[in-house]
């Protein structure tokens, strides 16, 4: 299978494992999240090794090693994005499978198992019509200061949601116009969502407009902007004014 088919296969397979585990009822809450992370990650790592043995891998749930830094192609994986939401029985969690080539999020698949969906960069659908008032996605528990302030500047509406992948895909699906995050993430939190969003025609960058670069020694990514291109310049301008 080609890379995009493999990404879909990986995301859908991990989604099935996670849904089956939750349905079994053998674990609850944090224990369910921990077990789901472990099972999905074990399967994903085995599948990548079987299908792309020469590629590098970076997964949230596997001890990182420097070998990937010498690789041009690196699969960047989050087996369960939104562990809390998964453990609480919610639908706003995701599985991320991205492929970075020379530091660029080149392709990806994001499963939204609670909604029965897998979105990928291979066959993006046309973006839905935008709302008249911009909707900004924020954390359910810790809305980013910059997002709150940008919403005030734009006259926008804050929409709380769970995982990073769920929020990013909500923009792709037309449920919001802007996802601005400044509270810190890691490469596995957004590589696949960025690839899917970019393929759909959305703006993707750091919140200062700089490009997102992957497969770094330090996997921390401080901030992220995914939004409709029609709003990009206004959002970036508002952030710059807030931070000035």
From TrEMBL:
Binding-site list for Mg(2+): 60, 78, 80-81, 189
The protein's required cofactors: Mg(2+)
GO MF, one example: 3'(2'),5'-bisphosphate nucleotidase activity
Any one Gene Ontology BP term: sulfate assimilation
Key words of the record: Magnesium, Metal-binding
Transmembrane segments: none
Protein name, entry field: 3'(2'),5'-bisphosphate nucleotidase CysQ
Lineage start: Bacteria, Pseudomonadati, Pseudomonadota, Alphaproteobacteria, Sphingomonadales
């Amino acid at each position: 299978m080609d890379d995009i088919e493999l990404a879909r296969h990986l995301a859908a397979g991990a989604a099935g494992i996670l849904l089956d585990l939750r349905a079994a009822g053998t674990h609850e809450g944090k224990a369910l999240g921990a077990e789901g992370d472990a099972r999905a990650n074990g399967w994903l790592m085995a599948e990548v090794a079987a299908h792309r043995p020469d590629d590098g891998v970076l997964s949230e749930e596997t001890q990182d090693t420097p070998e990937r830094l010498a690789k041009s192609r690196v699969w960047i994986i989050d087996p369960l994005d939104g562990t809390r939401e998964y453990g609480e029985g919610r639908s706003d969690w995701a599985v991320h499978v991205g492929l970075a080539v020379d530091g660029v999020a080149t392709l990806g698949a994001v499963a939204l198992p609670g909604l029965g969906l897998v979105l990928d960069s291979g066959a993006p659908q046309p973006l839905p019509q935008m709302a008249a008032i911009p909707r900004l996605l924020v954390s359910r528990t810790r809305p980013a200061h910059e997002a709150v302030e940008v919403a005030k500047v734009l006259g926008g509406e804050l929409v709380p949601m769970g995982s990073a992948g769920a929020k990013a895909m909500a923009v792709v699906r037309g449920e919001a116009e802007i996802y601005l995050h400044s509270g810190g993430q890691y490469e596995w939190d957004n590589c696949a969502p960025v690839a899917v969003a970019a393929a759909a025609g959305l703006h993707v960058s750091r919140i200062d407009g700089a490009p997102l670069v992957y497969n770094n020694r330090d996997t921390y990514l401080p901030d992220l902007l995914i939004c409709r291109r029609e709003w990009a310049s206004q959002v970036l301008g508002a952030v710059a004014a807030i931070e000035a």
